[in-house]
Specification:
It contains 12 helices and no strands. The chain has 207 residues and is mainly α. The protein is globular and about 65 Å long. The N and C termini lie far apart (58 Å).
Length: 207
């Protein structure tokens, strides 16, 4: 952790930006709990900085520690009321804790103003609750609108098609998604999974 503290102190005049950059670095660590603990210690020394608390919360969420993720997100919101990123992090932490009704309520409220990141987050939450028609409607709208959430929306439509065993539709949607370099690895994994499921279906039909 000492090298990260030194990085914050020496490389970033703006500590808020430093924490967001450090979040990107630690999010790549394989030891998810270890990364969260490092950020937690750093954030404790910057208790008045919303970005520090948010970064800790995101890493605790990645480590699947819902209680610590929620506490950190709520500290960030207390420091900067109305900060959308932190509010979305709180929704994800609530869902991780199994508090699904509260997560859906807060998520739906955030999505009412049309913010695309709030909408895509809400759609994935709806899909997790098997409310796929509602999720699909949001994914479809965001995909057709283009913009920063279009790739995630297309991934959502592909996931629904795959889950419903509409393999041709899923393959077509993933083919479009594969043009996005950021989605390439996940797309290849999904296409391989579809090929496996298609083979299993064909084998079952022959028996």
């Amino acid at each position: 952790g000492a090298q990260f503290a030194e990085l914050l102190n020496s490389s970033y005049q703006d500590r808020a930006r430093g924490y967001m950059a450090l979040l990107g670095i630690l999010a790549e660590e394989e030891n998810e709990t270890g990364a969260a603990r490092v950020m937690d210690r750093l954030a404790a020394a910057d208790a008045g900085l919303a970005e520090a608390q948010y970064a800790a919360g995101v890493l605790w969420q990645r480590a699947e520690h819902g209680a610590k993720a929620l506490a950190a997100a709520e500290r960030a919101i207390a420091l900067r009321s109305g900060w959308r990123q932190a509010e979305l992090a709180r929704v994800r932490a609530l869902a991780l804790q199994g508090r699904r009704d509260e997560a859906l309520q807060r998520s739906g409220a955030l999505a009412t103003d049309g913010d695309v990141y709030s909408l895509i987050s809400h759609a994935w939450l709806l899909l997790g609750e098997d409310r796929r028609d509602e999720a699909a409607a949001i994914f479809e709208e965001l995909w057709r609108a283009g913009g920063p959430a279009a790739g995630d929306a297309l991934a959502g439509l592909a996931a629904i098609a795959q889950d419903e065993r509409r393999f041709d539709d899923a393959t077509r949607l993933l083919g479009e998604l594969s043009r996005d370099p950021q989605q390439a690895e996940a797309t290849q994994w999904s296409l391989a999974r579809i090929a496996e499921e298609r083979d299993e279906s064909e084998n079952a039909a022959r028996q």
